[in-house]
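Figure 2 data, in text form.
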Amino acid sequence: MTAGPTLRDGTTAEHELAALQREHGRPLFALLLRLCDGDRQRAEDLVQETLVRAWQHPEALRADAFESVRPWLLTVGRRLAIDARRARQARPPEVGDAVLENARVCADHAERSAATLDVREAVKTLTPEHREVLVLVYFHGASVVEAAAALGIPPGTVKSRAYYALRALRRVLPGYAADLR
């Protein structure tokens, strides 16, 4: 497609841009999608930016040497994708608000020490059977099978004792209940 007449300000008419989009939009999007590693939103933004460049430079679309404007559009789109990739690599990655909202808040040293003392006192209130399972599984990181072998009891008993030990701790430590689930 060759572009037609320009408006007084030297830009391409809107209907011509719509025709460019219809005729060349899919191949342009396919190329940019590959160049953007499958990021559809980025590819759509680059298609839009390419069409903006076509709107800003109608003289390029009217060159008599072109049989089609598609090579020009694909070249502009490719260069925009390369520039965007280089710009992203030149600056550190952005951290979104969602990441910060989900980030765990670290308590200061005094709060951690107080919490450790609270948990130790609460663990002392458990029966010896529950305490040894809890210590093996949660504090030493043993699996259920490893704890069962170390204690000489069936794995189902280890699971049961761990469940009831945590339940007892939730009652004793109501402020820490969210951490024990």
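Caption note: The chain has a mean pLDDT of 81.
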